[in-house]
Amino acid sequence: MEQSAALLVIDMLNDFVLPGAPLEVPKAREIIPAIRKRIDDAHKAGIPVIYVCDAHGRDDPEFKIWPPHAVKGSEGARIIDDLAPGASDLILEKTTYSAFFGTDLERILRERGITKLILVGILTNICVFFTAADAVMRGFEVEVPRDSVASTSDEEHRFALAQMEKVLRVSIT
Question: Which of 8, 61, 101, 104 has the highest CB neighbour count under 10 A?
């Protein structure tokens, strides 16, 4: 990993990852070891790790589309234990699909001289995809390691990776 890079760990939360969770993504459990390794490698290299976490109010309009999930302060909104943040890691709450929308992410990255983002987590076709799109449109270089992202279906996963690579010029590794 490069010094001007940051690792974004997207939505690896109890309400998405644990068996029986409201928006369970079974394939999310398969990518935990690869993400854990990337986090450990980033820590060793002094690369910032930013956890991007869905965080909703109890009456969030998104609940008209999806079942209630990641309600602020709930157990479901917590990062899974296997990927617990380190003391120097940042936690950034978001209220919609993109990590940039309505957050201080861009300012945080610019202040640290970050020019490249490595995106891991879920869902490949929603939060990872929209974060990648917003990052590219803001001039960041983006990498998405295919062993560290997951979706609810293989079809949606493949489509999102292809769109990121072909349309956004994201590096899929």
Answer: 8
